[in-house]
Amino acid sequence: MSAIVIDGKAVAEEVKADVAKKVEGLKSRGIVPCLAVILVGENPASVSYVTGKRKALAAAGMADKSVLLPETATEQQVLDLIHELNEDSSVHGILVQLPLPKHIDEKKVTNAISPEKDVDGFHPVNVGKLLSGEKGFLPCTPHGIAVLLKKAGVATDGANTVVIGRSNIVGKPMALLLLRREYNATVTVCHTGTKNLAEYTKKADILIVASGHPHTVTADMVKSGAAVIDVGVNRIPDSSKKSGFRLIGDVDYDSVKEVAGYITPVPGGVGPMTIAMLIYNTLEAAENISLAEGK
Ligand code: GUN
C-alpha cells in the first residue's frame, strides 16, 4: 500500500489563515506585526526563500521592513543594521537569511539579534530555552514538522524517532523538541559519523531526514508503516523546466512511499511549514512586545 502523503501546503495555509485572523485583531488595537528579513548577497536558493517569506508576510497583513544588502556588505554593516532594527520599536521580528557570505561570522550576527525579536529561534537564549523546556521562539522548520505530525495524526508518544542530521537549524532543535514531554518521543540523532545508518532507520516509527543529500534514505532502510519526513531541498538539473532545475528531497520518494505509512513530498511538504511557522513566530513576537509595552 502506498503511504499517505502529508500535504504541508494545505496545513501551512491553515496556520497562515489563523495567524492572519489574529493579525487583524492586533491591528484593531493599533499594532501592526512587522518582520525585517536581512539578505546579504544573491545566493539563488536564499533569494527564493526570502521571496517566499516576504510574500507570506504580505498575505498575513504584516509589515515588511526587509533589507537586501550586496554580497560585499561588511560584517560591521550587518551588525549595525541589526542594532538599528533591535532599537526600532515598530519592528517585532528580525531574521538574517543563512548562509551568509564567507567573510561574515554567522554566530556573531545571530547573537546580535535581540532574543525577543529572534523569530528564527537561533539566538543562544532561545536555544537554551528549547533545551531547558522554557517558552521561547522555536526554530521554524522543527516546529513546522511537529505541527505536521500532529495534524496528520502521527503519534509521537513513545515513538522510536530517528533524526538524520545534526545542524543547528534542523537536526539538533528537532531532536530537542520531540524529547519534550508534550511529544515524549524516544529520539536518536544520526549524522555523518554514524556507522550503518540503516540499522537505525529500520527501527524508526518516525524518520526525519535532514542530511542535505538526495537519496540518503531508500525503501530498504524504512520500516513498514513509518512516518517519513523529508527536510531536503536539492536542486537537480532538468532541461524540461523553465528554471533549468527541479527540486528533490533527501528521501528516495518514489520507492519509500511504497513502504512508509506517511510521507512528506518535496516540494509541498516541510518547506511551506517553515514559512508558516515564521509568520506564527512574528505574530507571537508582536504580541509579546506589545504586552511588555502595556499596549
Ligand atoms: N537558511 C536555511 N534555513 C533557514 C532558516 O530557517 N532561517 C534562516 N534565517 N536561514 C535559513
TrEMBL record:
Pathway: One-carbon metabolism; tetrahydrofolate interconversion. GO terms for cellular component: cytosol. The keyword NADP applies. Its EC number is 1.5.1.5, 3.5.4.9. It comes from the Bacteria. It catalyses: (6R)-5,10-methylene-5,6,7,8-tetrahydrofolate + NADP(+) = (6R)-5,10-methenyltetrahydrofolate + NADPH; (6R)-5,10-methenyltetrahydrofolate + H2O = (6R)-10-formyltetrahydrofolate + H(+). GO terms for biological process: L-histidine biosynthetic process; methionine biosynthetic process; purine nucleotide biosynthetic process; tetrahydrofolate interconversion. It holds the Pfam family THF_DHG_CYH_C. InterPro entries: Aminoacid_DH-like_N_sf, NAD(P)-bd_dom_sf, THF_DH/CycHdrlase, THF_DH/CycHdrlase_cat_dom, THF_DH/CycHdrlase_CS, THF_DH/CycHdrlase_NAD-bd_dom. SUPFAM superfamilies: Aminoacid dehydrogenase-like, N-terminal domain, NAD(P)-binding Rossmann-fold domains. Residues 139-288 form the Tetrahydrofolate dehydrogenase/cyclohydrolase NAD(P)-binding domain. Homodimer. Belongs to the tetrahydrofolate dehydrogenase/cyclohydrolase family. This is Bifunctional protein FolD. It comes from Treponema peruense.
